[in-house]
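User: quick one, fold this
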Amino acid sequence: MTIVQSTPIMPAAILETERLRLRSVLERDIEDVYASCVDPDLQRWVPLPAPGEPYTRESAESFCLHVAPAIRTSGDGQHWAVLERESGRFVGSAALLRTEWPAKVTEVGYWISPWGRGHGYAAEAVVAVSRWAIEQGFQRIEIKAAVGNTASRRVAETTGFVHEGVERNAMPLNEGRTDLAVYSLLPTDLPTDLKTTP
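Assistant:
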């Protein structure tokens, strides 16, 4: 019996910026992912692995070995580990998620490890991932951030995304629920030299 993939799979890509290298999440990232995801500031806005569930080393292992690779092979998107180019140090994660292939729409998600914050790494990774997605022919890239998550919203606003509005009561947190600020980036939002043809 032949199984046919019903949705496309994003091409595997290593992305590089001035200071960062984005590559697939690997087994060797488990400890850094665990140390990042138990951080209370991250858990406040990104309830991993699920709202109300404690983040364990097993959660990190599952993410690195199964969840992140499955996002790509299922056609849902792609997950990258964010590393400092010079040191090779893991400093966070960036992803394309909830991809709607017929509409050519996808969403950028990201988090930065406690030891990587304050350096502009989130913005640098978001620029790399969103511009790469546009180069692949995507026509709308979204960012959704809890309205109270000012750091995440600043990333969207400083990387060229346009604020469109608020989805009310849209996401569960570890405590309560939150409205989501919705941002988008279209190919026409970019300078002419960065645009690609669909």
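User: anything notable?
Assistant: The chain has one domain: 15-194.
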